[in-house]
Design goal:
globular; disordered N terminus; 15 helices; Dna Ligase, domain 1
């Protein structure tokens, strides 16, 4: 068994170690807040149906027994920007969650929205020697995928089979045991900048924690926010965070595209601070209490206190109309949505059967945003909140916790990925795949 084979399956082993200890932490490393949830795993769901391949052994039910968040420091555009500040913020969140849980946690599964994600659609096809599809045949089909050169300094974060075809029958979710001559597979591969992964890994290690898994925030936010029909028929999840806006498209219950725009709610806050000449803390308060993007007839008459503590009486007693505030916020929000539309157009989102759009994330709570999104992106828009999970405090049920809740579901019910299959070393898809999976060998 080669070192590459061991590296390929290291993530499964790390997660299994955490499952055996029945305790794992979820860490959402965002630009606005660092959120930590502590999960108690309560045993495999015996007899539970599986709707996919390559499921990791020991799917479990879970309960949230600890939750905490702190203001993010040292994170910009969803990436580690200042190591020591980020380490302190992560330690603060993890320790507070551990204190609430009354348990020490050694393993964490983390998600992040940065790293300039790129999506690739891959295809592989193999003949069936026995005439019946086996697990080994599926592994050979995945290994036959022609992995592109993802670029210098980039690594694979997700590699998921999204569709199987047997001869001329496509849309199979599980072809095992079926009879045919040729097996084809479509795989979605998501790559990110290696430095984003390495910095996050190093930061978590400095916090005396072991990383048991990594996920893309747009992916896990989609898992938590899209209902079953939306995931099946085709929908986009727009996760509007503080430093970045994540985009994920789901079809047939699989993510088929992901991207991120390096703009978010913090940029709206900064515009307010500059436009009204107030501090960022005051700008955030004004945005939260009075913000909006759709003007009404009474906005000119609604005055907002821009209180300050500069010592200048006239300056500290200033008032601005809500119409002026909307005039500052709307252009930036429109810019973000235009960038999102460009990404959706590149992904040919308009060809999906449903074309539903679900907004989530902290910045999605701006009043009137759904109406503006409907004008720019399409008519089928709704505001999404994450699924309810057992033990989750009321304070962690809002759209700003979509990624954290989705990461809980990802931890307990992981989607099958390329490295979850028993692929013989001699069948690896050549040099490019070894390069794509290099970070496992280097970091696990």
């Amino acid at each position: 068994m080669t070192d590459l084979y061991q590296s390929q399956r290291a993530m499964r082993r790390m997660r299994k170690a955490a499952m055996d200890r029945r305790l794992i932490a979820i860490l959402d490393v965002g630009s606005t807040k660092i959120a930590c949830l502590v999960l108690r795993l309560e045993g495999p769901e015996l007899g539970a149906p599986e709707d996919g391949l390559g499921r990791m052994a020991g799917q479990a039910t879970f309960r949230v027994i600890g939750a905490a968040s702190t203001r993010s420091r040292g994170v910009r555009f969803g990436e580690i920007d200042a190591m020591q500040e980020a380490e302190r913020a992560i330690r603060t969140a993890v320790q507070a969650a551990q204190k609430m849980a009354g348990q020490r946690v050694d393993h964490v599964i983390a998600c992040f929205s940065g790293g300039r994600p790129r999506s690739y659609g891959l295809a592989g096809e193999v003949p069936l020697s026995e005439g019946t599809v086996s697990e080994a045949d599926i592994a050979r089909a995945l290994a036959a995928c022609d992995v592109p050169d993802i670029g210098q300094g980039r690594e694979v974060l997700h590699a998921q089979p999204v569709n199987f075809a047997l001869d001329h029958r496509s849309g199979l979710s599980d072809p095992r045991g079926q009879i045919g001559n040729r097996l084809s597979v479509d795989m979605h591969l998501l790559s990110v900048e290696a430095s984003a992964i390495q910095n996050l890994l190093y930061c978590i290690q400095r916090c005396d924690l072991e990383l048991a898994g990594l996920a893309s925030s747009p992916y896990v936010a989609g898992i938590a926010s899209l209902v079953e029909d939306e995931q099946e028929l085709g929908a986009a999840c727009i996760d509007m965070g503080g430093g970045a806006t994540g985009i994920s498209i789901f079809m047939k219950k699989h993510m088929i595209y992901a991207d991120a725009v390096r703009l978010g709610g913090d940029h709206v806050t900064l515009d307010i601070a500059k436009g009204l000449q107030v501090s960022q803390a005051q700008a955030e308060r004004i945005k939260t209490r009075h913000g909006g993007v759709i003007a009404t007839g009474v906005d000119d008459r609604e005055l907002i206190e821009c209180g300050g503590d500069s010592g200048d009486w006239d300056r500290d007693r200033r008032r601005v109309s809500r119409a002026e505030l909307i005039g500052i916020m709307r252009p930036r929000v429109e810019e973000i949505l235009e960038e999102v539309r460009a990404r959706l157009d590149a992904a040919e989102f308009e060809h999906l059967p449903s074309r539903a759009i679900v907004l989530t994330g902290g910045a999605s709570q701006i009043p009137g945003l759904d109406g503006l999104v409907a004008r720019i992106l399409g008519q089928h828009v709704r505001l999404g909140r994450p699924l309810r999970v057992r033990g989750l405090p009321q304070s962690a049920t809002g759209p700003d916790y979509a990624a954290a809740v989705g990461l809980c579901l990802f931890a307990a019910h992981p989607q099958d990925e390329w490295w979850d299959f028993d692929i013989p070393a001699e069948r690896y898809a050549g040099r490019s795949l070894r390069k794509a999976l290099k970070w496992f060998r280097d970091n696990w």
